[in-house]
Specification:
This protein has 326 residues and is of the alpha+beta class. It folds into 3 domains: 45 residues; 97 residues; 133 residues, Distorted Sandwich (Glucose Permease (Domain IIA)). It contains 7 helices and 14 strands. Strands 3, 6, 7, 8, 9, 10, 11, 12, 13 and 14 form a 10-stranded antiparallel β-sheet that branches. Strands 1-2 form a two-stranded antiparallel sheet. Strands 4-5 form a two-stranded antiparallel sheet. α2 packs parallel to α5. Keywords: Coiled coil, Membrane, Transmembrane, Transmembrane helix. One of its GO terms (molecular function) is metalloendopeptidase activity.
Length: 326
């Protein structure tokens, strides 16, 4: 029950009842409500300043978990890069060398991902970790590309391994003329005295001295790419394409036993020793060409020589003397 208030009226000398206006009640109520609301807001701000809400605690915990996931993922990418690097090294230094393939160029393996800015969405975000996310995304993209290149390399190696018999048959691994006594090698690969100009010039093959009509053998399986007749230079020549980057040339021949387009086997007679072109004596000038570059043929005479014979023929080929022709 509400308390009734009175006041003393000096004019009537009586206690009169206090009459409360509706407006005063409303103002008093609003004032009290404002005070309560102000205190509540103040307490809430004070609480939020020194204490975290359950939602904030949950978000903070989730953020810490995401950080852990990020660093774990970063470590996993780093470990995968190390494993991939070991595979690449084994691929280049073992598999490809054994199977006669060139190592993959380092620039190809480490090439980036081209195109427009792939990370524009991340870069334009408001996340405070966007730089770390972009860096990780770049590392993952590079890892994907390197794995793709390595996968293609393994496909190539598998194909080479499956065709290794064909590969070995394509390597020019015997001498092009019969030379059991090792007395026919007249001039080796390297700078030799030119038979005409009498100055040192690069001799791009090996000269085998032999009588005119001595059989010449294909040193590996292949296809006769070209036969040519000239009255100077190499004279009558045959060039055989063995595949896998190998070609051989036989020069200063007397006669051909094959023609362009013929398939030949290692040890098959392809022609006969002559004295044609720029030649000072009957002989065969023999070249090995690997991917367009002329290389020393003596390094390939391993199928028909034992270790001692091979050492002897390498020694003979290293003597700087006069070549017998171009």
């Amino acid at each position: 029950m509400a308390r009734i208030k009175y006041y003393y009226d000096t004019e009537t000398c009586k206690y009169e009842r206090v009459k409360v206006k509706t407006q005063d009640v409303v103002f008093n109520f609003l004032g009290l409500a404002s005070l309560i609301i102000g205190c509540a807001v103040g307490l809430l701000l004070l609480y939020n300043t020194y204490f975290e809400s359950p939602k904030e605690l949950r978000l903070k915990n989730e953020l810490e978990e995401l950080k852990d996931y990020y660093y774990n993922l970063e470590n996993d990418v780093s470990k995968m890069n190390e494993i991939l690097a070991a595979l690449e090294k084994r691929d280049d230094d073992i598999y490809r060398i054994v199977l006669g393939a060139d190592p993959i160029d380092e620039e190809i393996r480490n090439a980036g991902i081209g195109g427009a800015d792939r990370y524009e969405n991340i870069r334009s975000s408001s996340s405070e970790f966007k730089d770390e996310i972009i860096k990780l995304s770049e590392n993952v993209d590079k890892l994907k590309r390197k794995m793709y290149i390595q996968s293609k390399s393994h496909d190539e190696i598998v194909e080479l391994a499956e065709n290794k018999e064909k590969l070995y048959a394509a390597i020019p691994a015997i001498q092009p003329v019969a030379n059991k006594e090792l007395i026919r090698l007249a001039s080796g690969f390297g700078y030799r005295i030119h038979p005409v100009y009498k100055v040192k010039k690069l001799h791009t093959g090996i000269d085998f001295s032999a009588p005119i009509g001595t059989p010449i053998y294909a040193t590996a399986d292949g296809v006769v790419e070209k036969t040519n007749v000239s009255f100077s230079g190499y004279g009558k020549t045959i060039r055989i394409d063995h595949g896998y980057g190998y070609k051989t040339r036989y020069a200063h021949m007397h006669e051909f036993a094959v023609k362009s387009g013929d398939k030949v086997k290692r040890g098959q007679v392809i022609g006969y020793v002559g004295n044609t072109g720029t030649s000072t004596a009957p002989h065969l000038h023999y070249e090995v060409i690997r991917k367009g570059r002329k290389i020393n043929p003596v390094h390939y005479f391993f199928n028909d020589l034992n270790p001692d014979e091979y050492e002897k023929i390498v020694e003979l080929a290293s003597i700087e003397n006069q070549s017998l022709g171009m």
